[in-house]
Design goal:
Layout: H1 2-31, H2 39-65, H3 68-99
Length: 100
């Protein structure tokens, strides 16, 4: 059931993500034609791959310390909590950067 719902929802989710990314690229290119618009795609792929790498390190590290079942249960909770803790400092950083 989990795999079925993941496969049904992953397509629309990726479409929404890439649509938003392309709109941001078009807007940025319209405002600053000298800026490389494809840097957004590169940044997007780099951060996706870093997230995947950190998720694997977290999963395998937790599986090494405990059991595989414990790692499967707690890796999403730990990763989600870390993301929630990073949202606020990153939003402050983005607001500061836009103010310049």
């Amino acid at each position: 059931i989990y795999t079925m719902f993941c496969s049904l929802t992953s397509g629309p989710a990726w479409n929404a993500i890439y649509t938003t990314t392309m709109e941001v690229m078009d807007k940025e290119h319209g405002e600053n034609p000298s800026v490389s618009q494809y840097g957004y795609v590169l940044d997007n792929e780099i951060f996706f791959n870093l997230g995947r790498l950190l998720g694997m390190v977290l999963f395998f590290g937790l599986a090494y310390i405990t059991t595989q079942e414990t790692s499967l249960r707690f890796t999403p909770i730990i990763a989600g909590s870390l993301q929630l803790l990073l949202i606020y400092p990153l939003s402050i950083l983005v607001r500061y950067h836009r103010g310049k």
